[in-house]
Structures are given as structure tokens and as C-alpha cells.
Amino acid sequence: MVAAAAVFRRDPEASLDAVASAAGLSRRALYGHFASRDELLAELLTRGGARISAALVGVQDADPRIHLALIGAAMWAEVQQVRVLAQLAVHGPLEQTVADALGPVRASVRQATRGGVEAGWFRGDVPLESLARLIEDAAIAVLDEAVRTDLGEIEGRRLIMTVGLSVAGLSWREATALVDAMPQLASTAPPEPAAAPPFEPTAENRGNRS
Questions:
Q1: CA-based end-to-end distance of the chain
Q2: Which residues, other chains included, contact 140 with Cβ-Cβ below 8 Å and sequence gap of 6+?
Q3: CA dist., res. 124 & res. 169, Å (int)
Q4: Residue 6 and residue 99: Cα distance in Å, rounded?
Q5: How far apart are CA 37 and CA 7, in angstroms?
Q6: What is the pLDDT of residue 5?
Q7: CA angle (129 as vertex; 127, 133 as ends), nearest 5
Q8: DSSP labels for 135-197?
């Protein structure tokens, strides 16, 4: 599966023959495990989604902004699996496989999004489910771009957090200020309770409080 992930990361349209060659296997040996390219991809996607979901265990914060940023950081930590996910997340025969594999991730994003909207931090002019999906799509796009451009570890982790927060409704300056002010966003350790927020919701956003 390591060879398959590397091959599809370079070329999402690669054949089973290319995977077999990279793994040092004969085509017959590979077909003994997977009947088709889609079957191999489905297994790879399921494992990748499980890795990302496992990385989210314990990722939580009372501040929904920090919660959302930590989800992005956890996804970034599994970036090696994400390019294939990004290529197939929206369209294609394995769309449902991707959706199932990322179910726990999407649930966590929805929870953070709902909390942010209710608190007045996130935009309230977009239906909650639509906003959560837009945040997911932005995170996957950042991860895909980061892999293609070989973005550095620190830069990539920071970008996925700030872009997700910006889509949610913060300005890029607010998102940057939050990431810079919260030590747990710069750490891979489990998050500590948040300190006082570095800025307050705008008057407009306060009107979104339920």
C-alpha cells in the first residue's frame, strides 16, 4: 500500500501495472490481492481516511475556532495520503468511498462549524451544512496544493489552518492573529484549554448568535 500511495500521489490516473512495478511485484501477484484498479484505490482511500480520522481522536477545544484549526492541523499531519483523496473527493466512481472514509472528519468539522456560528465567530449567511462542506473543500484544496508545490511543514500547517478559518468567516488577518496567539496551534501535543481570545466577534457577527 505504501508503493500504491506513492504512485497515485504522483499520478492519480496510474495503472495497476505501474503500481506493481513500483512495489516490485508481478501484475499477477497484484491482481491476486486486488481485482481492479478501483478496488485498490478504494482500499487506499479507506486506509487514508482511517488515518486522518484516528489523528482527530482527542482533537477538541471549547473555542470552535481553535477546534477547527486543530482539525486542519491533524489533516496536514496525514498529508501524504491526501492527494489521492483530493483528486477523488468530489467526483468519480469512488466518491462514496471517500465520503465514508472521511465521515468522522466531517462530523468534527460540522461540530466546530455549528459552535462557531452559534458563538458569532463564523459567518451566518450560509446554511450550516453548506458552510461545513465549503470548509472541507478548502482544506482538501490546500492539502492538494501543498503536496503539488512541496510546501514546507510549517508553512503548510499554518496555511491549512488560516484558510479554513477564513472560509468559516474570519478575515485573513483575524485568522493569522488567532494562530499566532494560541500556542496549542503551533504544537502537535493535545490542545490545552484556550486562553482569552485575541480579538472579539465583530458587531455584525454578534448578530448571528442564537
A1: 47
A2: 82, 85, 86, 89
A3: 8
A4: 22
A5: 12
A6: 72
A7: 115
A8: HHHHHHHHHHHHHHTT--HHHHHHHHHHHHHHHHT--HHHHHHHHHH-GGGG-SSPPPPP-S-
Give the separation between CA 60 and CA 67, rounded to whole angstroms.
5
The CATH number assigned to the domain holding 156 equals 1.10.357
Domain tally for the chain? 1
Query: In this predicted model, what pLDDT tens digit does every residue of 87-127 receive, in sequence order?
Result: 665 556 666 776 777 788 889 999 999 999 999 999 999 99
Distances (CA, A) of 127 to 110, 124, 132, 208: 11, 7, 9, 12
Domain containing 172 equals 53-206
164-176: average pLDDT? 96
Q: What cell numbers appear for 167 in the block?
A: 472560509
Is 9 a domain residue?
no
Positive or negative, the Cα torsion across 66, 70, 71, 72? positive
CB within 8 Å of 176: residues ≥ 6 apart: 162
**Does residue 28 lie in a domain region?**
no
